[in-house]
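User: Fold this; tokens only.

Assistant: Input:
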Amino acid sequence: MTVALAARGELKWADALPYVTVQFAAAILGVVAAHAMFGLPLLEWSQKARPGLGQIWAEFIATFGLLAIVLSCAASASRAVPYAVAAYITGAYWFTSSTSFANPAVTVARTFTNTFTGIGQGDVPGFLLAQGIAVVVAVPLFAWFFGERPKGSG
């Protein structure tokens, strides 16, 4: 979402970098915390294969849908964003073959778990590509749909 906000001009690109850095670090710390709760090695390389066009397409759908929820809620000034996001991610976990990573930080962090939630390093580029394309498609589409004008970016 940080990249989408920068693409919409709601966040300066220079300001996005610290956010993204913290998001990646926090996602990896989340893996460490989860592994500690279950007595697993704190970090381990995932061996979970998630190959193929079907997985990449599913990840595009998962990310596009998440952006649709957030951008639609934002356009209507809805206070339901956290509930809508939680409901969508829960559903997308079940209706996408990728299990809805829908976030580059989550994708990279899940390379550090060899549980069923992991992703092998070789499959990460396809997921990141799908997520990036979802941003490129969703941001202008929803700006057009809601009649929004581009905001100044810096």
